[in-house]
Each structure stands twice: as structure tokens, then as C-alpha cells.
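Anyone up for a design puzzle?
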């Protein structure tokens, strides 16, 4: 057979005999990677379907199967439908195998047989983890194999109620090009698993590692092939893990699930609201609590900022946990509208507890935390805030204002700074003073008592230790 190279787009899977700078399939740049020798084509014959009337089609909604891990079910939209393919993505070591083994345990406790395929670990390694988690069901069939055709053979023999494949980067198809983890392998294996799921009407969970670099087959290409994409994330230095749906053909993508990694596995966190606020927190300069909202849930999250005179020619701007594109905007607005002068100062912003807050509603919290650190003036520990900041320094309304305020009230906050009209004042939650602000300058005044003259003031009277 003649040797032949194939180039494939890592975003959409478009193939080309030569390298291209821009993919004609999806328009992305620099996404082509070489795929080695192609030995043969995978048989792509599909079962031919007949058109049926809309009325005849069953939604499968009534047949939703709950995994029994409530936080997972919540994110899935109330469990899984038959034939759904769920990709569980996340950094290596974040807890994907743990989560799926625990879900397998609950499913088997509900009477389902689960085929758990580990292509990364031996049966005894899986058993060790299971023992640690207290999982000992004989309804979980473990297969340690990397060949996806063997996986499918076993699946037809066992005919499980659910199939778990851990991970897509470790399985391979004998007829696809490249080694395990390459784009063509990932695509072929995933296509086979998707086909199995649909034909057998069995929910399939696929684990996909997200690697920062070097991974030519990031789960991106997979995301288009599966029905639901969940990301399991968190900072490994902290025990909390957040599960979020980024794609969900059978539910919303708003919900998050919160877990805590403990010595005996993942524990579901039913009331996560104050996990991301430093315990026993008193007033301290640079720390502000925001009320974020995810799906039907509001969470109180602490934002911390530190500013100080720089010793570099270009001041440092570093953020963790917040959308890094918003930090420069917030800083520019603080300079222009609230009288801070940050040109010679380093600014560090981070979110407590290792959680990520990407929504623009965090802007006001970032701004107030930076201002508080800048003037070395603490914000009252029982004051929270939320709001998006516009380029003109205006504080904009965000969704779910009422829910955020209610959560703050529930947790004993006494004051919340909100965009004007974001919270209906007639429905003010008990004991909570709702302060509407129109601009960042107003917010800074309300929280720190700093009235700014436009154009700025001089450097703060602040000790530089
Ligand atoms: P794992 O599920 O193997 O991660 P992934 O499949 O995403 O690569 O979890 C790995 C980490 O979780 C590992 O560092 C050990 C830790 N862990 C616990 O803290 N407690 C436990 O009970 C288990 C099983 C794992
Ligand atoms: Mg694993």
C-alpha cells in the first residue's frame, strides 16, 4: 500500500491531502495536523432510517434514567435519555474517573448493569479505586482494553444499561490512522461509540482529557459529535470541583454541579453558597464578595485584589478565576471614572476557593476589590455586590438580580450593591439593604465613601511596605 499523509483539522475534522493555513471546513487558522499513514477506510455503512411523522416520534423524555448522583443529574437536565452520548472533559487528575465510577455504582444500585471500560488502567487499578470509594457492585463489569472494536463486542455481549469509556484518548481503532489520541483515532472511535449508543439506545459516557498543549486531539472535535459536553473543573489545590454543561442537546447548559473531593471520593455539595468565601472572614482591604448566578443557583464568591507600586517597567496584571479579558477594561474604567491611578502599579486579582467566575456580573466586584486594595480600605464583610461594568463606567443590569439578592439575604449579608433597578425594591429580601448604583464612581462612593472628581486624584496616602 502506498504511503500517504493526511492532514486533519483539529477543530472540525476536515481532511485534506496537503497542509492548509486556514481550514475550509470551519474557517479556523492553524488547526491542521499531519495524520501519518492511512491504512484503510473504516466502513461507514449506516442503518438506513425511514421518515416518520412528527407525532410518532417519541422524545424519550419519559425514559430518562437518573444516574443517582444528584449533582450530575442536575447538570444533565434530570438524568440521561437512551442513546445519549455524554463527553466528560477535564484536566487529568481532576476526578473524571472517580465521578463516573461513583455514577456507575449508583446506576448499578438502581438495577442497571454498567460496562466500565478502562483503557488507561488495569482491572486491579480500577478495583483499588472502587475499594477506596466503597464501590463493590457485581453489576459493574470492568473491561480493561484499548481496542474500541473489542469494547463494542463486549458491549453487545453484556448489553449494559450504560457504557463508560475512560478515556477517548486511550482507545484506538485498528483501521484508523495514527496512534491513540490522534485526531483520526479520536474521531473514528467516537463515531463508533456514537453509533453504538444510537443503535443500542444505551447512554454512553466518554471521558476526554483536556491537555493544555501537545494534545492534537483536544476534545473540541469530539464536542461536535456527542450530544452533551460536561466539563469537570476546579483548582487541584482546592477540594472543590464544578461540573458544568457546555453543550446539552437534552437540557439546559446553565446548571452547575458542585462536588468536594475527599479521601473517599467525591461528595456532593448541596448548598455550595459560601464555599468560595474565606471562612471567618473579617473586613480586609482588597476583598469583596459578589453574588454570582449559575442556572437556578446563586453563589457567593469572594474576589481578592492586591495593588502595589511596581518594580517592573511594565506593571503586572495577573488574574486567576476571572475572565482575563475583563480585567483591563475594569482597570481602565477605575482610572478614568473613579480616580485611581494604576499606571505604575501591579494589579493581582483572584477568586477564593479556586472557582472560576466568568460572567460579566463579576466586574463590579473586581472593581471594588481593586479600589479597596488601592486605598487600603476594607469593605464591610457583610456587604456584597454584583453588576456588569460598561466602557462608560456605567453599571449594567445582569440577569437573575432577585435570586442573587435573595441568596445574599439568606446568608446574612446586610447590604448589597446592585445595578439600579436590577432588584425590585418592593420585593426586598428581609434585612437586606439594597443599594442601586448607576456607575462605578457611585459604587466606590457607596462602599468606600470615596467621592471621585472626574480626571482622578493623586496617589493614595498609603504605606508601601
Ligand atoms: P481521577 O478520578 O483519577 O481523575 P481523572 O480521571 O480526571 O484523571 O482522580 C484523581 C485524583 O483524585 C487523584 O489525584 C486522587 C484524587 N482522589 C481523592 O482525593 N479521593 C478519592 O477517593 C479518589 C478515588 C481520588
Ligand atoms: Mg482517570
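Challenge accepted. My sequence:
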Amino acid at each position: 500500500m502506498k504511503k500517504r499523509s493526511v492532514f486533519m483539522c483539529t477543530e472540525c475534522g476536515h481532511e485534506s491531502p496537503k497542509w492548509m493555513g486556514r481550514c475550509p471546513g470551519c474557517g479556523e487558522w492553524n488547526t491542521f495536523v499531519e495524520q501519518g499513514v492511512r491504512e484503510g477506510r473504516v466502513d461507514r455503512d449506516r442503518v438506513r432510517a425511514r421518515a416518520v411523522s412528527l407525532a410518532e416520534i417519541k422524545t424519550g423524555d419519559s425514559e430518562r434514567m437518573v444516574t443517582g448522583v444528584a449533582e450530575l443529574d442536575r447538570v444533565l437536565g434530570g438524568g440521561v435519555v437512551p442513546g445519549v452520548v455524554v463527553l466528560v472533559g477535564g484536566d487529568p487528575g481532576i476526578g473524571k474517573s472517580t465521578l463516573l465510577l461513583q455514577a456507575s455504582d449508583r446506576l448499578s444500585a438502581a438495577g442497571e448493569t454498567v460496562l466500565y471500560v478502562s483503557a488507561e488502567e488495569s482491572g486491579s487499578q480500577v478495583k483499588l479505586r472502587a475499594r477506596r470509594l466503597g464501590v463493590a457492585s457485581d453489576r459493574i463489569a470492568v473491561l480493561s482494553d484499548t481496542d474500541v472494536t473489542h469494547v463494542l463486542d463486549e458491549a453487545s455481549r453484556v448489553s449494559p444499561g450504560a457504557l463508560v469509556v475512560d478515556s477517548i484518548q486511550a482507545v484506538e481503532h485498528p483501521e484508523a490512522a495514527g496512534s491513540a489520541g490522534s485526531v483520526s483515532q479520536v474521531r473514528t472511535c467516537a463515531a463508533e461509540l456514537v453509533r453504538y449508543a444510537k443503535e443500542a439506545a444505551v447512554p454512553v459516557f466518554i471521558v476526554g482529557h483536556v491537555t493544555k498543549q501537545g494534545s492534537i486531539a483536544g476534545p473540541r472535535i469530539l464536542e461536535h459529535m456527542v450530544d452533551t459536553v460536561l466539563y469537570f473543573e476546579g483548582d487541584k489545590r482546592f477540594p472543590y470541583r464544578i461540573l458544568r454543561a457546555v453543550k446539552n442537546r437534552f437540557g439546559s447548559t446553565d446548571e452547575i454541579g458542585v462536588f468536594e473531593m475527599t479521601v473517599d471520593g467525591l461528595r456532593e455539595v448541596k448548598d455550595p453558597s459560601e464555599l468560595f468565601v474565606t471562612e471567618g472572614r473579617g473586613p480586609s482591604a482588597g476583598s469583596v464578595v459578589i453574588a454570582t448566578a449559575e442556572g437556578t443557583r446563586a453563589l457567593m464568591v469572594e474576589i481578592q485584589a492586591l495593588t502595589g507600586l511596581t518594580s517592573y517597567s511594565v506593571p503586572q496584571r495577573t488574574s486567576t478565576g476571572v475572565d482575563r479579558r475583563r480585567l483591563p477594561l475594569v482597570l481602565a474604567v477605575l482610572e478614568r471614572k473613579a480616580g485611581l491611578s494604576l499606571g505604575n502599579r501591579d494589579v493581582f486579582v483572584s477568586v477564593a476557593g479556586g472557582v472560576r467566575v466568568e460572567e460579566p456580573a463579576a466586574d463590579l466586584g473586581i472593581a471594588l476589590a481593586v479600589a479597596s486594595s488601592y486605598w487600603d480600605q476594607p469593605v464591610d464583610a457583610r456587604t456584597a455586590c454584583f453588576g456588569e461594568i460598561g466602557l462608560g463606567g456605567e453599571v449594567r443590569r445582569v440577569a437573575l438580580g432577585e435570586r442573587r439578592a435573595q441568596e445574599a439575604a439568606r446568608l446574612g449579608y446586610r447590604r448589597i450593591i446592585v445595578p439600579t433597578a436590577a432588584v425590585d425594591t418592593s420585593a426586598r429580601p428581609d434585612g437586606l439593604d439594597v443599594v442601586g448604583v448607576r456607575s462605578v464612581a457611585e459604587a466606590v462612593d457607596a462602599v468606600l465613601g470615596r467621592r471621585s472628581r472626574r480626571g482622578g486624584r493623586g496617589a493614595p496616602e498609603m504605606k508601601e511596605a
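A detail worth pointing out: Residues 52 and 58 are 11 Å apart (CA to CA).
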